[in-house]
TrEMBL record:
This is Enoyl reductase (ER) domain-containing protein. SUPFAM superfamilies: GroES-like, NAD(P)-binding Rossmann-fold domains. PANTHER family: HYPOTHETICAL OXIDOREDUCTASE (EUROFUNG) (PTHR45348), ZINC-TYPE ALCOHOL DEHYDROGENASE-LIKE PROTEIN C2E1P3.01 (PTHR45348:SF2). CDD domains: enoyl_reductase_like (cd08249). Keywords: Oxidoreductase. Belongs to the zinc-containing alcohol dehydrogenase family.
Length: 338
């Protein structure tokens, strides 16, 4: 293949990304080669860069969220054709192979971790979706997690409520939309400036997670609800403890969380971390990535959220994007155009 590929390489822990030429290979069975037009940056990218964790070989290529154009498909891939506009969750962290990382011009992706996007959706806006979507899917639908009914099986609204902590985060934004599509009432937390944003995604009530009386206020609010559980999209020990206290006071329940749960929780509360990288290719992963997402994006049932903050163009801008994300964002996702 005569394509010229460049990547933003990470040579070792605490090194700055280095842009250089990278190899590119033909997609194998079940894979496809995507030319990236936009990538998004996630907290885990900066964490891996700082700590060197999860890396199977150096140099590595980070990056989970890509949006671009299919160049070539491998054997058995029928739902995508060359030229198709797609998003994909790059799975380099799991495969350990540089060609599966997102921070490069051409990425080899698994077809089951990709979805078609409508012509009306820009690559920059679409790039915010993949990792947060899989994280939401893992916590909401997998057995052993909340195991909610899928959106495609929802017939009207259930009478049950889900508490979503950090509804304005990327993961929280996907959780609110999916839980609502599945027919659940959603009560979220966010900073007051993001209350309307969370409501625009489907939350029926939003509380300030920085309020010192948040546990009391939410416990009072959810006492009259039939709770299906909670999703901690922030995942600090403090947030999980607060959610556990709220659930515990109102009969107990399950918390799906993005990080390792605290060691000690009330007896009537259980909590489990989901891993987004393990979602594509599972039954629920396929049900959501293949059977729900493309149609939901086309119909507007699922929106790319939060808003893309395009901080630069070219692989050289990715390091700046990672540094910017470490300073914190609010209801936005850092995106680099390629
Ligand atoms: N397990 C997995 O597979 C997996 C996958 C993806 C992400 N994650 C983890 O999930 C977490 C969220 O990722 P993300 O990309 O969604 O994050 P993000 O969008 O970068 O998070 C930003 C949001 O965090 C909120 N926030 C800030 N301080 C908060 C606090 N004290 N309590 C509650 N919310 C607070 C802000 O809300 P306001 O501005 O409204 O206050 C802001 O909108 C990260 O820890 C990430 O590493 C895990």
């Amino acid at each position: 293949m005569s394509l010229e590929n460049s990547a933003a390489f990470l040579d070792g822990p605490r090194q700055s990304l280095r842009v250089g030429l990278a190899s590119v290979r033909k997609p194998a069975a079940g894979e496809m080669l995507v030319k990236n037009h936009a990538i998004a940056i996630n907290p885990i990218d900066g964490i891996i860069q700082d700590l060197g964790i999860f890396v199977q070989q150096w140099p590595t290529i980070l990056g989970h969220d890509i949006a671009g154009e299919v160049v070539e498909v491998g054997e058995g891939v029928t739902e995508f054709k060359p030229g198709a506009r797609v998003i994909a969750q790059a799975l380099g962290m799991i495969t350990g192979k540089p060609e599966n990382g997102g921070f490069q011009t051409y990425t080899v992706v698994q077809a089951h971790a990709a979805a078609l996007i409508p012509q009306t959706l820009s690559y920059e806006d679409a790039a915010v979706i993949p990792l947060a979507f899989s994280t939401a899917v893992g916590g909401l639908y997998q057995d052993g997690h909340l195991a909610l009914q899928l959106p495609q099986n929802a017939h009207g609204n259930t009478d049950q409520t889900l508490l979503v902590w950090s509804g304005s985060s990327c993961v929280g934004s996907a959780v609110i939309q999916l839980a609502t599509a599945s027919g659940f009432d959603v009560i979220a937390t966010a900073s007051p400036r993001n209350f309307d944003y969370c409501k625009s995604l489907g939350a029926t009530a939003v509380f300030d997670h920085a309020d010192k009386d948040i546990v009391e206020k939410l416990a009072t609010r959810v006492r009259s609800c039939k709770m299906v559980g909670a999703f901690d999209a922030f995942g600090s020990k403090e947030s999980t403890h607060k959610i556990a206290e709220i659930l515990s006071r109102t009969g107990g329940g399950f918390i799906a969380t993005v990080e390792e749960p605290p060691a000690h929780l009330p007896k009537n509360v259980t909590c489990k971390q989901m891993l987004a990288a393990l979602v594509p290719g599972t039954d629920v992963g396929t049900a959501l990535w293949r059977d729900f997402l493309p149609a939901a994006l086309a119909s507007g049932q699922f929106k790319p959220a939060p808003r893309a903050n395009v901080v630069g163009q070219g692989l050289e801008s990715i390091q700046m994007g990672i540094d910017k994300l470490k300073k914190g964002v609010s209801a936005s996702k850092i995106v680099v155009k390629l």
